[in-house]
Fold these 2 entries.
Entry 1:
Amino acid sequence: MSTEASSPSRHILLLFAHPSQARSEVNSVLFNAAKKHTAVTAVDLYAEYPDFNISIEREQQRLLEHDVIIFQFPMYWYSTPALLKEWQDLVLEYGFAYGKGGDALKGKQFLCAVSAGGREEAYQTDGFNHFTLRQLLQPLEQMASITQLTFLAPFALFGSRTAKEEHRITLHSAVWTKLLDSLAQDTLDITKARQLENLTRYFDEQDLHK
Amino acid sequence: MTGYFLQAFIYLLAAVVAVPVAKRFGLGSVLGYLIAGLIIGPVLGLVGEETNAIQHFAEFGVVMMLFLVGMELEPKALWHMKLRLLGLGGLQLLLTSAVITGIAMIAGLSWQVALTIGLIFALSSTAIVLQTFQEKGLQQTEGAKGAFSILLFQDIAVIPMLALIPLLALPELASAINETAGQNAGHGDSLVEGLPGWLYGLVIIASIVFVTVGGHYLSRPLFRFVASSGLREIFTATALMLVIGIAALMGLVGLSPALGAFLAGVVLANSEFRHELKANIEPFKGLLLGLFFITVGAGIHFATLFENWVLIISITLGVMVLKALVLFVIALLFDLKGSNRWLLTLSLAQAGEFGFVLISFAAQNNVLATDLIALLQLVVALSMFLTPGLFILFERVIMPRYMHGSGSRQHDTIDDKGSVIIAGIGRFGQIVNRLLVANDFKTVILDIRSEQVDLMRQIGTQAYFGDASKPGMLDTAGIKQASLMVIAIDDRETAVEMVKYVKLAHPELKLLVRAFDRGHSYRLRQAGADYLISETYHSALEMGAQALRSMGVHPFQAERQKHAYRDIEAQQSDVLYEAWKDDASGVRFDNNYRELFMELQQLIDDALKSDLHDNHSKRRGWTPPPKGYAEEQLKNQKD
């Protein structure tokens, strides 16, 4: 999908956590697109660790070898699926990711690629879910902060249950590829990407300016 | 011939009646045998003169006991407890025998006799005390551990004592006896008679070396050869042959048979055949020792007791008080606290069965005069009769005082995790064993295939050759202390029988059993097994899941399907088991069962399929809300 001829300067680690991929309509499309991207190492965590027996050694090695870390997951009860939480609990060890001598992740970029069943209007302080998506992801934002990762705004798709019927997936996937390109080439305006509510906006705006 | 049968019957009957009754009253088996002897001897007069002849034969029980004691003493374990052994045991023996010898000399006896009496009374009763500890669940207390060290030291010390006593022989007694027994002495079953001193020494050293080295290197190929024949009685014969052969060899060179047997026992303590040997020798030892105690009981002179009852009772009490005092001092020195100090003091205050052995040995060697022998036997027996009373005193009076205070008993039992017996160390048992051992649990491994035991030993696993279906074998493997038993043997019938027996004899023991197939697992379950696993079930499930993955099913989905299969199987297994039990009386797998089995297959099929073909299935897990849910939310929000 990458149109750039030059080899990408940075490596992206995509950690995909989806326990029910047979039902997936959005995430599987994004994941398959990412798999084809030369800069991306795409890991299906539920395929690799179906019994939850995560190899800490292997996962830490992967983190060391990449510059950008992406968690891709469908929101389950305003949080990550269980295996991704397990991954955090096991892999982000003291002395590796945080604490004394724990600066293995320092300066790497981190973002979440999320799909949410509810509409964006529901994810508002006065909405049905009472919090914005970014607010709900604050535990991950703080995780990034303590592990010295640079936290970027989430790349989110709302109303994912009907995205297929409303033909929104193709566009979303195209924006996703654009995001991966710019992450690989380090062309993203980080200050802006940190401030946004949703990274999908970043490109909507840019496209408008072009 | 009939006369022998009659006599044997009287002895056995007395034991069969008296021993269980004595045990019921908390007196222990040793007292039971003594009482049985008392009844058929002095009381009823059913047996008489022949008891002396039988006693010599029964003393062979002591030889076997020392063989078994030796086998309990792995050289390594012995080294580990050297401080306690030498400290506690050495002090006790030294102090007690010194004090009693001194008193006996003051009473006007010659120093040889006094020393013999001192040694006799210094010993305590291993048989009574260890058994009582076990019956009352005290083994793991500090007091009982100290007592065990002392008893062990005493048991070992008996051997040099047996060597020492002939040197104390009184010339005037010897000459008196030699006149009457002179003609017997000459028939010469000794090889070393008439040899010069240096050659005699050489022969002795050579025979000890032979027992040690031979026990180590020759016994294994022999046992392996015999074990491979699969004939159980031949193994028993081999075990007996070994002990009797050593006793004979030692007799030939003029050494104590007990010493030889003990040495052989120590040499074999590390052998993979240890438990099987123990299981085979144990019943003989038990019966012979029992016989020995019966003859002691039968040989008690009531006349002497009635004539001197004041003297005998006061000597008995005096000896016990003295022994208790010495023990109390030692307990103080070794910093035993609270109830443990009292346990050590009271438990070992009696004289013991080795006292009888020493007495009769001393009598044969002309150290003690006949009237003194009768008196000493009465004192030893009486002190043993009183021992259960001391334990009752400890339990009722002393323990309650300390129970609420320090709570030291709970503390003592922490290190006793209980062990696991694993029957069958094939490919299955090995994995179970490795998991347990890696987590610091003590396992005792038994297998009847000696090649397999060999193989395990070569890779550093402590396995023993032994038939785990034999109750005696399980006893020596420590089933009483075990908290868990894993049965992974290949013979299906034997496994079922084992479960039945173990559940009957040790209902509190947890039994994990490998079943061969469904039918076998039902039979094991009926026999009372606590946890069952069919040998191929889990590996087949794993293979099935891998097959799914290989066909492109998502690994997590395959994992889920595996779990679903397992869940339904578990839910339905009770139903199937009940159906099987109903049918078990008639044809095993009859129509009703077959129908249920088909139903199970169908249930599994349905459950696994529904997840694949239907996005909103009955199978639960990560089901998203229905498609229109987000819009519903917004509507609710606006309302």
Entry 2:
Amino acid sequence: MMDLDNLGYDDSRTLNKKRGEILTAARKLFIEQGIDRVSMQVIAEAASITRRSLYNYYESKEKIAVDIQILNLTAVSFFDTWNILGKSAGEVRAIIKDILENHLQEYMFISCFDIFFSKGYPDRKYVDFMEREIRSREYGTVLDLSDPSSVDFAEFATIDMLIAYTQRLVMRLVRESLSFKDVEDEVNLLCSLLTN
Amino acid sequence: MFYHIEDKALSRTILKTRRRILETSFGLFARNGIFKTTMVDIADAVGLTRRTLYNHYDTKEDLAVLLHKLLLGDVLDNCNYKLEPEEMDREGIKHCLVSLYDYISKDQDRLSFTVYFDQYARERNDLIGEENLFVNYLLANTQIIDYFSHLKKRGVFRDETVSPELMAKICFESLIAYMERISFRSEAHKEQGIVRYHDFVLLIDKLLRGIEGASS
């Protein structure tokens, strides 16, 4: 059962349950087919409700995708996970390994989401969520995001690259059925190249 | 790049139409993605009937693959990737990688098309073939593997047990992944304003130093 507290709806318990079912069904479809190829009709069918009642919960698939993304990022503790400034290659390797072994589905969705919303987000909800999350974190090193001049962008770029690379690995694992052994060699090498 | 198709057997009018088709479909693919674009969209945008369009190109896969070939040909033409033996050092390779990135990212359409095509090719690899993936194309057409072999011969390679091929693949995979990320960012994260763009050069430098650095 999904915990929908983060999404800020004022639902009754029944509504909440139904909303969870919609999101679960939609996530599966989005991952399998990509967000652009899934329609509201198909989501309604997968969640066993009519299209009309689906529209009572969500006015568009974009809004569904945003909710799934927020739940996903929370579920994988995205911002804590990637708080890797100053961590050693070994620690980073462990993080990436954990993602590949335990969070493939979540990261697949994150990739689908990034691809679909590459031209901007449907509303402020997601952007607000990101800002809130990032501001509420404590970072290991001196990193005050409200003051960009204090941020070491060299380190930041490295993290960015590792996240991007991990997402790509997830895609390759799922779509090209690579073996974990092949992937592990790559991960080990890249981590030792990019981190201390 | 659309001027690469030169076939003496074709009349000028046909060539002109084909160029228009290529130019227009490139823009559509880059803006809407390859999945979402249909042959009807392309025909409408060029101002042809669907039937006429099909006389020139059979499927949108054909079009996408051709455009990708033209673009990559152009990329390699514009990057000084053919290094002379005396230029085969870290600076030379760095220049090659940076110019490659520069060329693709200078134009948002080029970057988007590359990213979309790669995704499309991965999903439809029955149709398009692994050799068309960006990373494989770069591995086959740049000298990065030669450079790594050369380092290995000199005994300054990061890890003796790793093949130059694998090392080169990792370099390109990670650089392409980063490029994709930047391309997503450029639009979506404008509003967010949190993450600034980082210097790609810096990452290339870090990678290359890491590969060479171990024993020096």
